[in-house]
Design brief:
2 domains, Tetracycline Repressor, domain 2, single chain, 248 residues, 0% strand, Arc Repressor Mutant, subunit A
Length: 248
């Protein structure tokens, strides 16, 4: 019978992230700290994307042999997990310093977006479950702390933080896609948006897509004075505020 109360053993990659793996007592002394190894990996990813981060590439950048790197991280999967946590960093003070839960969540969304703008390759690392590395958990803690004074239940607070995090991630994903496309085409972002609208204008007929046709005709898709994502976040938080008001 399975013991549901047993505390699971930490996977080695998670233990490494938490500094819970003792340094080997035998063998040659390590030339670098794990943090230095990860900083080199971050630099490679910032320069050339996540695909540039391979065990041989990190080893070469450090002046090590590929086999020597395994003394620091045991696999590519471990490297990716530690790299993501290193790139995430700790939440800034703007989140905890904000006055009120709404301002706190706005700061949380902005800070999350800033991480993705600084390290866009992080969007290419798949989400496979609840993050269990220290920096990722610090972000979850910061979001929950913002909501600590509200009447939301524990479950509701988690749900709200996940929604805000997801909004920030999706926004960063869309913005990166447009920015990459503009770079590839050698155009301004506004030019890409106008080109898209013109293409849609050829495809969208009034009889088949009446609402989209009217939207195109209004110029809404090329109106850069309207912040779609800012509007979306504001309405999300309006919904939380309304829910709190009704609950009270």
């Amino acid at each position: 019978m399975t013991d549901d109360t047993a505390i699971p053993e930490l996977p080695r990659a998670i233990a490494l992230a938490w500094g819970a793996v003792p340094s080997p007592q035998r063998g040659p002394k390590r030339e670098f700290s794990l943090e230095q190894v990860l900083d080199v990996a971050v630099d490679l990813a910032d320069a050339d994307g996540i695909d540039a981060v391979t065990m041989p590439a990190v080893a070469k950048a450090l002046g090590l042999t590929a086999m020597s790197l395994y003394r620091y991280v045991s696999s590519k999967e471990t490297l990716m997990l530690l790299l993501q946590d290193r790139g995430m960093g700790l939440p800034p003070g703007s989140v905890s310093d904000a006055q009120g839960w709404r301002s706190g969540l706005e700061a949380y969304a902005e800070a999350s977006g800033a991480v993705y703008r600084r390290h866009p390759w992080m969007l290419d690392i798949a989400i496979t479950g609840v993050a269990s590395t220290p920096n990722n958990l610090a972000w979850m803690e910061a979001g929950l702390a913002v909501l600590a004074g509200t009447a939301l239940s524990r479950e509701e607070r988690v749900a709200v933080v996940l929604q805000v995090s997801g909004h920030a991630r999706f926004r960063a994903l869309v913005e990166r896609g447009y920015a990459d496309r503009a770079d590839d085409a050698g155009e301004q972002l506004s030019g890409i948006v106008v080109s898209e609208a013109r293409l849609l204008g050829r495809l969208v007929t009034e009889d088949r897509f009446p609402e989209l046709h009217a939207t195109l005709g209004s110029g809404a898709l090329v109106d850069d004075s309207f912040g779609n994502f800012d509007f979306g976040l504001a309405r999300l938080l309006d919904g939380v505020a309304e829910y709190l008001s009704r609950s009270a």
